[in-house]
Amino acid sequence: MGHDHEGQRVSRRRLIAGISSLGLGAVLSAPGARAGAASRAAGGDLASLLAGSRVCKLTPSATQGPYYFDADKIRSDIRENKPGVRLRMGIRVQDSETCSPMGNAVVEIWHCDAAGVYSGAEKESKDDAASGPPPGGFTDVAFMSDMKPSDDSRYLRGAQVTNGDGIVEFTTIWPGWYPGRTVHIHTMVHFSDRRVLNTQIMFDDALNAKVLATPPYAAHTGRDTFNSADNIFRDGMMLQVIEDGDGYLGTIILSADSDRDGG
Asked: What are the protein's GO molecular function terms (predicted)?
């Protein structure tokens, strides 16, 4: 299915979704009283999480991976009772040339579960894990195409529409891993009926080690790839994370080329 048709579908979905009120708005907005209130509510100092909020450098792009499809799920909580360590995410989308927040953008995320399995592609992801990384690596152009889902599961997939501050919030679990890749979350931004950013969100490996040592992650042994050896990892993809009760709170600023002119 072509990108133009996909853009139209997302645009219609955006129109019926509306823009929700998001609890992490203060965290990712301009520094000030609201950011301080968010910091206290989260139980920690969020100053470091706001670092880079006025940097307009284009977020590194990445292949969308082999398991992308439009899950047609406008929702903030994407867990569907999947076991794992709770992760709240605040994402602010801004224009890479002006730093202006991008309202009315659709942000999609999808990632594997604690065992390294993707919904809608359970058989494929298990088979791929058993066979190991592809010969051409995960940056191969073959991973730029959409797939047709092979099962009815849709856990750990969802989309939200940015509010006027360019912000969306998701609740998910810390992702697991699979052979040849570090821990990551796939992210796609749509704006004005076009895909303007494909990227991936990564995590500090010390935190990865801490989380993956706990159930249910610990049952999946033999992790073979860390950030330093991952051929997609870039510093600009790192989620800024603090503890948040029995889970974690992470924030990231995504700078997208809204008019796709290379700026």
From this structure: iron ion binding; oxidoreductase activity, acting on single donors with incorporation of molecular oxygen, incorporation of two atoms of oxygen
